Known about the structure:
The complex is a heterodimer. Chain A is mostly helical. Chain A contains 15 helices and 1 strand, in the order βααααααααααααααα. Chain A has helices spanning 23-28, 30-45, 54-71, 76-80, 84-106, 108-111, 113-116, 125-154, 169-194, 197-211, 219-225, 231-235, 238-250, 258-283, 286-289, and one strand spanning 10-13. In chain A, α5 runs parallel beside α9 (169-194), α9 packs antiparallel against α13 (238-250) and α13 (238-250) packs across α14. Chain B is globular and about 85 Å long. The A-B interface holds A 4-16, 29, 31-32, 34-36, 39, 42-43, 46-47, 114-121, 194-195, 284-285, 287-289 and B 1-3, 8, 16-17, 21, 25-26, 51, 92-111, 113, 115-116, 119-120, 122, 124-125, 129, 132-133, 136-139, 141-142, 165.
Amino acid sequence: MVSQKENWTEIIESRRKFFSIEIKELLKYKDLIFLFVSRDFVAFYKQTIIGPFWYLLQPLLQTAVYSVMFGSMFDIDKETGVPSILFFLSGTVLWWYFSQSLIKTANTFTANAHIFGKVYFPRLTVPISILLSNLIGFTIQFLMFVGFYIYYVLTGKMDSTLAVGKLWMIPLLIVTMALLGLGLGLIISSLTTKYKDFKQFIGFGVQLLMFASPVIVPLSIVQNRFPAWTHPILEYNPMTGIIEGFRVIFFRQYTLDFYNIIYSCVLSVILFVIGLLIFNKTEQNFIDTV
Amino acid sequence: MSNDIAIKVEGLYKQYRLGTIGADTLKDDIKLGLAKLFGKNLNDLYKIDGNDRMVGESEYVWALENINFEVKKGEILGIIGKNGAGKSTLLKLLSKVTGPTKGQIKVNGRIASLLEVGTGFHPELTGRENIFLNGAILGMSKSEIKDKLDEIVGFSGIGKYLDTPVKRYSSGMKVRLGFAVAAHLEPEILIVDEVLAVGDAEFQKKCIGKMNDVSKNQGRTVLFVSHNMASVMELCDRGLLLKNGTVESIGEIKDIIPQYLNAFRAEKFTNNLSEVKNRFGSGTLKFHYFELLDENNNVIDSVLSGQNIKLKFHIKCDSEETLDNVHFSLKITEKNGNTLMHCSNSVTNGKEFVIEKGTTDFFITVHVSRNSFNTGVFPFHLFLSNLRTVYDEIEFAGEINVEGGNFYNSGKLPKPEVTPLLLDAKITLDDN
């Protein structure tokens, strides 16, 4: 046989390279990512009366409940020097983004099995679009927090305690949080294709995790008042560095070891890479087991 | 030359795991993982193939085995085979929904697959929004869809409902919208799975027309999977017949379809009538077995509408005397027993048979030219008698299995629910 120069657009094989995230292919599907984002955002409030305001109502109500129940219990105002409303609002807003991203990406394969089983497109478009559409919700909620913050300062209920020199940390923390939610979500989504146990676990797992994060109780209070065995739970939780790091930016009087933030960043990146690898290995054949 | 080949499949295998995935799966996975970790000789535990998957245990099954074929550019390949032959698996591999276990598929050009229409429609979004979403899922860019929006809307015929949420659409409208989007894809290679089986007759016609247009006029490659032999014959140039996960044959579609029809053979009920218990009569003459033949006397198992066929009955005779006035009749019914047709030698020949003394067995053949059955299964009933005695009578003696053929040379047939029989007619439009 004469050897021919064969030009194939694509070769479909059993095993892909270990790390072959096709950035080029993802970019080709960028329109799809944005359509997914707008679908998720629009479908969220279709046929509702207050529409996007639902994004505000949820953290507001949560903050109100926490303030009434835990505000005086832990003396948040006195211990941290931060008005309890602002304290809880910052916590719930950040937690909302992380937990929503985690829960939704964790369901990537199971929730989209009917589409994935019929059409091929880069599967990573789904988790990426989840991150982006949650970012819209987070931005709305974050602006609400800023509004409250300004209101407290203008009405003299609180002196401006903004650490201007640390503002650059905001994007860093948001990216870290996104990578953390995505990384964990990708790992769990891949495991869920085989073992549905993880689907059951994720719902209350995230709830439990919230109590292991400084959403309601700041790290300092845990370290001062809670039994010693509980300290490592918060200290090793990557969300601690993110949530407390955020508060440090807005409340100068707040104290936090800078090491906590670095730890969160590094761990998030590691989890993200592991998540990508597992996801990449799973996506080709998951439809056989899901 | 590789340049005019659109798809080349080489040594393709796909394995599936049988049974449920649960605690046992985890146990197996851990066992396998530990064995790998400690460098045990895996062959002692399981037989491992080149792809690190356990085989040899009965819980794994090969859905596709060693598939090799090529598709040239601009060709329409019909993929046919019985349920479970591996058609859908092959399509899934070609459209990258799932990966092969072994082997390669080499592709030249952009592939779009239509395993379902309207994939990813979101009920809360409007028709317009869903056109964009569905188009993007199928691989179109936003600007491409924008350019074709008017065409898509026109083709689907949803017009004024464009800005209504899809959840308020009828199922037919959803299908039409889905197909309209898919039909305006412009891939070099299109993979289609029986989507033509949906929608009303008028829309189906539109779809076949569109597929023809795509391949014949625009020179694209189409892979088409269907059970409907009428549309396969109409659309395809070549056929690929799958059987039990392997390629049975590949070639001109007109050669492949008869093989497909015969593939049903030997798995259906017996043609042996001698052991039928549920019969009535003296047994002087007894139906022994029957054969369904095509016009060249080849045994066939299914019939195409419009084909010339023969029903041949072998009859055993147990009589010392000459039998005259032997009456034979054949009744063909629907499954519920409603008579569709009846014929007998008294009517078709005008007289009965005479069976000479000493005959031990003989044949009766019913010659049917251009059979007018629509797709379906038609039971037949047999009767042999003379003026006084019933020799043998068998109800539901056998079935004629009819696959929709190209009866009208239009590639189309009425739905079997509409009519079990076809009128051999042409319809013309005349000025006066």
